[in-house]
Write a structure and sequence with these properties.
Length: 132
């Protein structure tokens, strides 16, 4: 009788225990479109895609300089695929997949990127330099 209870309990645990790796994969940072950092692009387009700069100043000649620092993440397809794979692997291995997957997902957390962007007097990109 006890054996009959153990199997359903283990199956229920396996189906409800999609562990940390699936959650970590789904919460990875999104990939930003770096093609917006190009000569002639308006500042508003860059702010919409990249976000607020970590530093901004206006030089004496009236030109604005922004410094952006962010984590370049992964495409939606990549994140969804990894999330689904981790969920299926968790169920198939009764949660043992987490031993490998959680540390792996912790290392794949995106790459740091930094840019310095100089704008002309019309707030359009005049020049940009990758800092990191």
């Amino acid at each position: 009788m006890k054996k009959l209870l153990v199997v359903p309990l283990l199956l229920a645990l396996a189906f409800t225990e999609t562990g940390c790796s699936a959650v970590m994969a789904s919460k990875q940072p999104k990939k930003k479109d770096l093609s917006v950092i190009a000569q002639g692009m308006p500042r508003s387009t860059i702010l919409a895609e990249i976000g607020s700069p970590i530093a901004s100043e206006t030089k004496q000649d009236g030109k604005r300089v922004d410094v952006f620092s962010f984590t370049q993440g992964y495409s939606t397809a990549n994140r969804v695929g990894r999330t689904l794979f981790h969920g299926v692997a968790d169920v198939a291995t009764l949660g043992l997949w987490e031993i490998v997957a959680t540390p792996t997902e912790a290392t794949f957390d995106g790459k740091k990127a930094a840019f310095e962007v100089t704008y002309d007097l019309n707030d359009r990109v005049e020049k940009f330099v990758r800092l990191q």
